Amino acid sequence: MNWRRFRIGQQEIHTLTALATFAIGGAGGALATLAGLPLPMLLGSVLAVGVAAWLGLRPGGRDPGVPMGLRLFFVPIIGVSIGTAFTPQVLAEALNWWPTLLAAFVYIPLAHYVGYWGYRVMGGLDPCTAYYSAVPGGLLEVIMMGEEAGADPRMLTILQFMRLILCIMLVPVGFQLFEGMAVGSSAGASLAAPGATLGPMDVAVLAAAGVIGFFAGRQLNMPAGIITGPILVSGIVHLAGLTAAAPPDWSIQLTQLIIGTTLGTRFVGVKTRLLARALRLAFVNIIFTLILAICAALLLSGAVGEIPEAVVLAFAPGGLAEMSLIAVSLQISVIYVTSHHILRIVLSVAVARAFAGRIPPGPNLPGGAA
C-alpha cells in the first residue's frame, strides 16, 4: 500500500494533503477558541479551510481535501451523545411538544415557497434550480432530486451547503451575542452527566450503541440513519440502565473538527463571483427562515415548556448532525431539537416531491429552461 495516497470508494486520498487540510482546520479551531467563539472547532475549521480553498491554497501540492467517508465514523458519536439524554422524565415531556411539531407542517412549505420566489426574483435562477435550492432540509436527497430534474448542479449544491454552513455559524454566534456571555463548549460546558464516570464497560456499551445504531439506521433506511440509528440504540441502553456515561468531550471536539473541515472543502474551485452571488442569496434566505424560527419561539416556547433558544434551534434549517451537535454542545434540550429536525427532513423531502411536477425541467435536461 502506498502511504502517500490511497483510495476510499471513488475518492483518491493524498495523505499529505489530508493531513495539511486537517492542520488548517485545527489551527482555525484553535484561533476560534482563543477568540471565545461558540463551537470553536466547528466554526473555526469551516472558516479556515473554506478560506484556504477559496484563496486557492494547495496544501501538499493539491486542493484542500479530506476523506469524505471519515464523517461516517464520527457522526454516530453525536447520536450516542444525544441518546444519553433519554430519561423517563424527558419522554413524558415529549407529549407536550405537539404545538411545535404541528407548526412544522406550516413552517416547511412556507419557508420553501418564499425561498423559491426569493431565488427567482433576487437571483434570477431558473425555476428548477430555485425550487430545489430552496428546500429547507434533506440536503443530499434534494441535490440528487434536483440533478435528476435538470437543475444547475453547481449553484444547487453551493446554495444547499451555504444554507447549512450559514446556519451553523449564525445560530450559536447569535445566541452568544444575545445572551451576552459564552455558551456551551466555549464556556467550558461538559456533556457528561454529573457524577458519571467513563469506565471500560461504559466505553464498550457506548461503542456498541454507535456501531449497532449505525448499521441499523442504514439497514432500516431511517431518515439520516447514521445519526438517528445511534440515537435510538443509545437511548435504549441508557433507559435500560446499562450505562449512565456519555462520550468524552474530546470526542465531541474531534467530531466538530471533522465535520467543519469536511464542509470547508466544499469551497474548492468556487469562483469569487459565484461565491458572492450564492452567499448573498443564501444569507437572505437563511435570515428569513431564522425570523420564522424566532416567531415560532416567541409564540410557542411557553406552550411546549422549552426555552425560546431550544425552539429556534429546532426550527433552524441546518443539517441534522450539525444542529444536533450545536444542541449537544450548548446543552439545549437535545432530544426536543433532534426530533424536530428529523421531522423537518422528512417533511422537506415530501413537500419537494409532492410539488415537483409543477416545476418545468431545468437547463441541464433536453427542453429545459435556458
From TrEMBL:
Could you state one GO biological process linked to this protein? Answer: regulation of gene expression
InterPro entries to which the protein is assigned, alphabetical: AbrB_dup, AbrB_fam
Q: Which Pfam families match?
A: AbrB
Q: Which residues cross the membrane?
A: 12-31, 37-57, 69-91, 97-116, 161-178, 198-217, 224-244, 250-269, 281-304, 310-337
Task: Reply yes or no: does the keyword Transport apply.
Answer: no
What does UniProt give as GO cellular component?
membrane
Task: Give the keywords, sorted.
Answer: Membrane, Transmembrane, Transmembrane helix
Family matches, as NCBIfam families? Gneg_AbrB_dup (TIGR03082)
Protein name listed in UniProt: Aminopeptidase
Q: What is the lineage of its organism?
A: Bacteria, Pseudomonadati, Pseudomonadota, Alphaproteobacteria, Rhodobacterales
